[in-house]
Each structure stands twice: as structure tokens, then as C-alpha cells.
Amino acid sequence: MTQFLSDEVYGQLSPSLPNDEFYMTLALDEASKGRLTTRPNPCVGCVIVKDDVIIGKGFHPKAGYPHAEVFATNHVKEQGIDITGASVYVTLEPCSHTGRTPPCVDMLIKERVGRVVIACADPNPQVAGQGIIKLLNAGIMVTLGVREKRARALNAGFLKAMATGLPYVRLKMGISLDGRIAMSSGESKWITGQMARTDVQYLRAISGAIITGSSTIIADNPKLNVRLADVDLPIGKTAIPQPNIVVLDRSHRLDTDDDYVVFQNSDGLIWRDDLVSLLKTLVAEYQCYDVLVEAGATLTTAFLEQGLIDELVVYQAPCLLGATARPMFLGQIDRLSDKLDFTLTNVERLGDDIKLVFVKRHDKLSTTQS
Ligand SMILES: NC(=O)c1ccc[n+]([C@@H]2O[C@H](COP(=O)([O-])OP(=O)(O)OC[C@H]3O[C@@H](n4cnc5c(N)ncnc54)[C@H](OP(=O)(O)O)[C@@H]3O)[C@@H](O)[C@H]2O)c1
User: Fold this and answer.
1) Does a structural domain hold residue 366?
2) Looking at the structure, do residues 176 and 292 belong to the same domain, yes or no?
């Protein structure tokens, strides 16, 4: 149940039909095409179906461009097909407010579609159920929650930020079989192979900000930028937006005038306050809804101990670095019952390395996020 929808609105929703999951899966595939380019906007896809035939599809390619529903509706019109009475499958509740583009619900009402199937409601305070209510008031059937889990995963950052004011935080670590992230000297290039390092480029590309620590900057002078080719979209060739880079440095060891690569990037920022304020600031002032932590064990441990990590992305290489190498986690846990537990959500082989994705178990790692 979505909190901002009243029981009265829920009572007016229509049950899902047998083919809904199939068409919504296609709409989610459409939405995924914008994954690297839409931020800070969410990825949204749309498929329009009439008499069990797909007559239009589209996705939101980039902030400032039309929404998925507009691309899909235009696709129908380009073919000279009558859209009246059609079913519209859209992965996020259609907008009801005027942003950089006019409200999509008004367009759907004007086009006299018969039914709108939505994967998940939009917690953006400017929408928050108003799109659904407007459609219902116009006599359009609305079904909600079809393939909602996948739709939520696609826009984890946007949905969390809109609902809580905090971003979705991923922690990336390249580790050895014995859980080490660097040698005692600080040397850490490279523990994992090329495929794992290329995969990290995608993690960076979906992130509005990358957070690291001053020690990592001093030890490695990393670029932390996205080095992927431009992408072809229906609107033309588009560069993937670069994330903001935030370096934590409470002891003032760094200055943005320093000759490190991250400060040559105009979006490099030094932060000296606490971690929760940083995360709130990234959402409120920088519209960074997905954040990636790429740091050493000190900062990684601080994020983990404060319960600020939503997702742990571990690239594990088939090597042992030994007891003097630096461990991935510096926390002191005395009793087994106090261990930090995660749920494994994905395993993938990348060359000789393994990518493991975990989400936190909310009962344990959630002390400071309320
Ligand atoms: N294998 C991998 O995936 C990987 C990734 C990144 C880095 N590394 C390696 O890790 C090593 C560096 O690790 P490290 O542990 O020394 O440093 P680090 O974690 O990268 O950075 C430490 C910095 O974070 C700040 N910090 C720590 N806790 C904080 C908190 N609660 N609030 C705000 N700021 C906080 C510290 O602040 P203060 O200024 O107050 O001390 C310090 O400046 C390097 O050798 C690097 O190569 C490995």
C-alpha cells in the first residue's frame, strides 16, 4: 500500500488483467533505456496497447525532454492509429503538475484513453497520487502495482529521496578472497580485473554523486569520473552526465586548489560535516538521489556503522592478500548476535571476478536514517 493514497482512492482502482505483467515488463524495458541519462529525473517507460496489439512505446530520455507517455502517444499518432480507448502501461504514476513539460495526465485524458496501468505511484510531493485521482475523476480505469518491485528497483534513488529526503546509497568495494581492499602500504591498483572495473563505470554513471575519503585521494589520486561512450537516444547522441565528486576531509588535509584530478573536475567538493547532513544536502541542494561510496575502510566503516548503506556492491577477486593487507571493514563487533547482516540479491561472474550485490536488513542497519 502506498501511504499517500487514501482507502477511498484504493477502492476505485481496477484489478489487474492477465496480460498486464507482460506489457508492463515491456514498459520497464523501455524505461531502462534512459537509465544512464535521465537523472535527476526518474527512468520511465510507456507502452500503449489496443485490442491486444502494441500501438506505441517510448521512454523518458533526459531531463527537459518530453515524458515517456508523450513519446509513446506520438508514436501511436505517427502511425495514424486512433488511441481512443487504448490501455496505457506506464512504469511511474503520470505527472499531474507542470514542470519543464505539461502534465501527462491532462494529455491522456484529452486523448480519451480507456485504461492506465501503473507500476508504482510517484511520491514526489508535486504528484503523490494526484495523477491517479485526476485519471479516476475523468472516468479512466486505473490499475496500480503491476511489476512494482522491478519498477521500484529501477528508480530506487528517486523514490527514496522523494519519500525521505535521503539518497539511495551504494557502497562499492573491490576485495580479495580474504576480504582485503589494499596492501598495508596503501597499494590497491588493481585487485579486480578489467570487466569488474568496467562494471564500476555503470555504477558511477547512475550516481548523482560519488563520495570518497581524503586518504583515498592522497593515496590513489583517482579520477572517479564516468568513462563510457556517449549513448544514442531518440533525441540524438547524448553524453552521460558526470557525477558530483565529494571528498570527506574533516582534518583539512585537502583544498580544492590542490593538484588532484577530482578537483580539476569543476564538480569536486570537499565536505567536513557529518555524513547524514551530507546525504541530506546532496538531495536538497544537488538533486543527487543515487550516491556511490568509493572509499577506503575508514569511511566505508563509518557509513556501515551508521546504517547509511542501502546496497553493498562487492567485486571479489580470486586472490589472497594476507593478514597485513587492509581489511574491508574496521568495525569492532564482539558478539556474533551483533553482526551486520545483509541479504544477497544478485551474483554475477565478471571474467575471473565475482560481483555480489547485497541489500541491508532494515532491522539492524537503520539507526540514523529516520
Ligand atoms: N579496494 C577498493 O575498493 C578501494 C576503494 C577505495 C580506496 N581503497 C584504498 O583504501 C585506502 C584508503 O583508505 P583509508 O581507510 O585510509 O581512507 P578513506 O576511508 O578513503 O578516507 C578516510 C577519510 O574519510 C574521513 N572520514 C572517516 N570517517 C568519517 C566520518 N564519520 N565523517 C566524515 N568523514 C569521515 C576521514 O576524515 P578525517 O579527515 O576526519 O580523518 C578521512 O579524511 C587507499 O589505500 C585506497 O587505495 C580501496
Assistant:
1) no
2) yes
Assign 362 a pLDDT band (cuts: 50, 70, 90). low
Domain that holds residue 284: 165-360
Mutate to test the pocket of ligand 1, among 171, 172, 188, 258 (most ligand atoms within 8 A of CB): 188
Average pLDDT over residues 289-295: 97
Contact 303, 367 (CB under 8 A): no
Q: What is the pairing mode between strands 45-50 and 87-92?
A: antiparallel
Stretch 246-268: mean pLDDT, rounded?
89
Catalytic residue positions? 69
Does the pLDDT at position 369 exceed 50? no
Q: Determine the average pLDDT of the residues in 29-47.
A: 96
Q: What are phi and psi of 201, to 5 degrees?
A: -60, -35
Radius of gyration, alpha carbons of the chain: 22
Spatial separation of the C-alpha atoms in residues 136 and 115, rounded to whole Å:
10
Task: Give the Cα separation of 103 and 84 in Å (integer).
Answer: 19
Last residue of some domain: 111, 135, 157? Answer: 157
Distance 121 CA to ligand 1 centre (A): 38
* d(CA 217, ligand 1 centre) in Å: 9
Nearest alpha-carbon partner for 123 in 164, 72, 91? 164
